[in-house]
Amino acid sequence: YLQSFEIPEEIKETEKKQFLTEAARYFVKENVLYRKDRQGHHQLCVHPDHRYRLLIAAHESLGHRGFFPVRQLLLRRFWWPSMKEDIKWHLQSCRQCQ
């Protein structure tokens, strides 16, 4: 949508307004996808291949703190759809935190 400005056919008529509202939060700059948070900060949309490394780095840089500090640190610069679930999974599987 961000390149063609055409709403995908699978989007129902009742969902179009929500789709357009959400799509307005995304933009591409120099071939990189970003998302604007509610305060207008730009968050890099992270490819799945890079998420785990970011999670580990954030968790370790905070001294193995919990969910909210890790999520807050990541959300300052990054975003991906399953971030909340991925952080929870990582914290539950961190041997040092158990």
TrEMBL record:
Pfam families: Integrase_H2C2. Residues 47-98 form the Integrase zinc-binding domain. Gene3D superfamilies: 1.10.340.70. Signal peptide: none annotated. This is Integrase zinc-binding domain-containing protein. It comes from the Eukaryota. InterPro entries: Integrase_H2C2, Retrovirus_Pol_polyprotein.
